[in-house]
Specification:
mainly alpha, membrane, transmembrane helix, transmembrane
Length: 62
């Protein structure tokens, strides 16, 4: 049995697979590039109030 040629494989392959792969790549690249401008997309480990020098709501007063 010989290996099928590329034309046969590309005709029988589901076109939705290509769309899903390309869509995932576009989503990943867009999210990565927008994360530099949108702080919402970056996981914030330090509360915003602590960075501003204010007390965070969940911290008890001394």
């Amino acid at each position: 049995m010989s290996y099928p040629n590329f034309a046969y494989i590309s005709r029988t392959f589901a076109p939705g697979w290509f769309a899903a792969v390309m869509g995932t790549g576009v989503f990943a690249l867009t999210t990565h590039s927008l994360a530099a401008a949108w702080r919402l997309l970056i996981r914030d480990t330090v509360p915003h109030d602590a960075r501003c020098g204010q007390r965070a709501i969940f911290r008890p007063h001394p």
